[in-house]
Sequence to fold (871 residues):
Amino acid sequence: MKFNTGRLKRAVFSSANLPAAIAFVVLLVCALVADKGNREVSDQLARADVLAKVNIIRAKLEGNIAGNLQLVQGLVSAIVTEPYMGQQRFASLARNLFEQKSQLRDIAGAPDLVIALIYPLEGNEKAIGLDYRNSDTQRMAALRARDQRALVLAGPIKLAQGGRGFIGRIPVFVPTAGGGDRFWGIVSAVIDVDRLYAASGLTDPDLDIDVALIGKDALGGGGELFFGGDNVVAGNPVTAEVQLPSGSWQISAIPKGGWPTAPKNEWLLRGLMALAGALVVLPILVAGRLFGERQKNDAELRRLSRRLELALEASGIGVWEHDIVSNELVWDDRINEIYGKPAGGKTRSYDDWALAIHPEDFERAKADFDSAVATKGPYSSQYRLLRPDGTIRHVRTRASFFQDINGASKMIGAEWDVTGDVLLNENLLRERRLSESKNAELNMAKARIEHIAMHDSLTGLPNRRYLDEMLAETEGRAALLHLDLDRFKQINDTLGHAAGDALLVHASKVIKASVGSADFVARIGGDEFVVLSHGRDDDELSALADHIIDAMRQPVDYLGHQCRFGVSIGIAANSGVDAKQLLVNADLALYRAKGRGRNRYEFFNEELQSEIVRTKQTADEILGGLERNEFVVFYQPQFDAKTLEIVGVEALSRWNHPQRGMLAPDAYFKVAEELNVVALIDRTVLKQALDNFERWSRSHLNIPRVSVNVSAKRLEDSDLIEGLRKLAIRKGTVSFELVESIFLDENDDLVTWNIEHIKGLGIDIEIDDFGTGYASIVSLLKLRPRRLKIDRQLVTPITSSIAQRQLVSSIIDIGKSLGIEVIAEGVETMEHARILKELGCDILQGFLFGYPMDAKAFKAFAQSRKWLAAS
Fold:
């Protein structure tokens, strides 16, 4: 028989190598899977590394922007309490913000959306006067902030004063007297783009990633790219959201040069897998050829396989073996590299490990190892190594207890270098502490700004805003003392504002020294103070008010001047009213105290409440009466002292009240003054008087002129002369009676101008109530009135008092010497008429000849001429 030896050899070779071929295929598949997994892990690690760096930049951006805007919020709080502050005050507050570490470039205040306040002013002059509504680049953001009543961050944008910035616009709403609020304007804070980028690490030259920011004007990921290149967005970047006060940005990043195409350890892993495959396949090949020797080498093969399995299980970064009994160590080359030892497989001792550990970490590392040995449990530790070259490395190690077939106890494990992770964590910890420190500084700055916003800068007392908060929290019995300094304005005008400030500081000290420690004292206006007291009854409140009034009476020396002033106090207790009404009640009591002579105190009570209700009712009725034309004119005739012919008539206002009948001015004039409608009543009287005067002229009733009272408010009207021109008054037919108190030696410029133009229109000027006010001979010379009217208080006593008669005679002589006609009012008897005629008085007016009467009655009276018979 002939054998085919070649086929036999191939069969023997095929069957001997089949396990090796199967193992090779299996290992190849595992290698491909492992290679793919390694790529995925490498990609994930790379993206995680980039994301960690992105998160640091994101946190810095959010912290810096929030910090800058928090500083500005304090300034907004100050504006709410001082909505009419000027540039100097604004700059003073803003300057404090720039002393903090920030990226603020400038801060602008835009009342009614027009920039009028800015700091710093130098270099930003071009921005003054900018109207956001006329700016295409800034209009939408400003209006959005106003309409949404929320902060809006816009940018980056080109600035009118040059450069670029992000602009945070904060709408400002200030409280109104009605309890609501009104839109004041916008406070804009410009954050410098370049400084923000630098402070957040975006422009760090050592940054090893490319970064892009998307979402201009805080529009998020759907917005416009404003930092970085399109290559970042198109390069499969890592992204994160930068949260802003009014929206967000999207931050994207990729490594510089793009993502790595292959893992760094790709060839090392492949080499290890090839080595592992060789270690697996070659023994199988040897086993196939040396099957007979399998039993002999089986124990050694299991020991090697187990060692390899544990090393792979411990991650294979650096593998070591420690004989617990002999303290011998077996390190692979990676362990030697970590410890700075030469490679070569040399057996190590316990001292090689112990002496390499940093002295400060040795006891802990030894305790961790001894504990694992004692319990034969898993070993895990982390410590520092002090390498021979002086460098320090952080390592982490893990191991398991193992007992070989000979019964020897060992620890087999792995160890790897974690220095990079430790340094990264330390850096993150430093950044966190820095951020916390910065937040603490911001909180301190905010507290300082809030203190400024809640306190008066001159006296250091709480201000009106602080008082409102205290009133909102007030519970139980409480009382308010509203204080207003008497004669303060005269001292302030005479000695200057510095003196006024010194007196205000003195007054605040007096009040603080007078009240108790539980009382709250605030300055709420120019020379107004408030004391909020708890637990005092009315007697105690009276004693407190008396003490403050007495203390305020004491003279104060200012630069050698003895300054004396007083204080008026209104007191209100919260008997069934809320805290805000309490302040209103105290203010009303203060008003009464001032009206009753000042330098005193008054309590708010039911009588005052009733008076307020009556005054309010009267005020409403006056306004309604003006709308319904209820104010009419009565006329009192004036007579020539010699011939007793009518030489004029005085037009007097009357209120034809629908329920109370015909009312004289003393029933409504004070309330009308408070309503500021006296000028309107004056115009009504003048119009009716001119209409009736025209009718009398057409009826051939020979009335030479009509006199009309004109209030001080009417003389302060800038449109008075223009209105009088439209009436086309005939020269010499109308006289304006002005109360004497108007004519001080130093008149208001507008009043003086109006009086001169009134004369130019042919209207005579008369001084009413002469002898009871402040007019002087100098003011008579300046004014040159056509007539003056002696007050009835001076005329009435002349029948019984020689001194009074001489006084009236002197007034008449003064008038004669200045060419001024003299009218005497209050002529009630024929004796009055005779004496005044003898003294040289020109015109008489009084009840002797006729009472005030309406237009119809006066016409009948003038036509009847009955007064001649009666005289």
User: Anything to note?
Assistant: The chain has a mean pLDDT of 85.
